[in-house]
Structures are given as structure tokens and as C-alpha cells.
Amino acid sequence: MSLDDRQKTFIGYLLNLAKEGQEDRGALADLRSGLGKEPGQMARVHRHVVPYLPEQRYNDRWYYVAATLFGSFPRHQKGRSLGAAFQPLRSKSDSMDTRFVALLNAHPDDLDDHLRHVVSLLKANDQPLDWFCFLSDLLQWDHPEGHVQLKWARDFFYKNNNSSGGDTSQSSITSEEKEIESHE
Fold this sequence. Notes:
By secondary structure, this protein is an all-alpha fold. The chain has a single domain, classed as CRISPR-associated protein Cse2 (Peroxidase, domain 1, Orthogonal Bundle). It contains ten helices and no strands.
């Protein structure tokens, strides 16, 4: 599933909040304030999410989850799934495999808690991910064939994964405009 224009605009908006040298610290703090809360408890987050929500209200939660997690770690690397971003952490601790399997097995009602811990570990280890792909994956989490979970598992467990290697020390918010255009 690829994102529609409104969804791409939403992620583009988030990326612009973290544009290097022009960060909107207040907006990012608003987003972080919603971590671990239900959308109805995120008064400071609404102004950043509601304008981008679809008219039909069945996926709203995933927009809030993506926004609050982005607020906690506003780094972006094109084409890097959450599985690929988490893969380098396998060598840091044996518990990373267990944590990742728990994420893959997470029920949608519990997924945001697992993701909050995983994104916290990504931040601590400076491992950015592709926020466009992340939202797309969240919106498909419930698919009966589990293709998101399979994609993340392949990216995490496959050792020769090119998308998990390379230089991640670059500032990943330096070319948001190009990134947004490439996802259109």
C-alpha cells in the first residue's frame, strides 16, 4: 500500500517540523506530550494531526502514534523500514531479538507501547527510519496475511540487508523537499 496525497502531506508536515536549523521545538514538544496516551487525551497533539486525518475515522489512532513517535525521534532515512533500522541493535544485546519478536507478535491494541520502546532504542542508538514507510506499515498492521510483520522480520533477521547498513550519521532531515517529492 502506498500512501495517498493527504498521508504524504502529513508526514511531510512532520518532517518540516524537524527541518535542520529550523526545528519547531514547541511543536515537537507537543507531539512528545502525547506519548503513551490515547488520542482523546492528546489535546496538544490534535492541531498537528487532525487536519490530516481521513474523513472516515477508522485509522485515526495510527496517525497519532506516528506523530507522537516522530516527536520523540524526528530523524528520517528514506527507504529504511523499522526492521532495517532495528537490525544493527541485534549485536548490542541478545534481548533485542526477543524484543523484536514481541513487537512482531503485538496485538494492535498493544502495538503503540511496543513501538514506543523500540523507537526509544532507535533514538538511543541513532538509527533513523523512513517515516513515510512507517505510517504506511501502521495502516496495514492488521492485514490478515501479516505482510508488514514479514517485511520487518526480513529486514531485521536477514544479515545482508543493504538498507540496514551504510552511513546513518548523516543528518536525515536535510532534504525533506526531495524526500516528499520522491514519495508522490
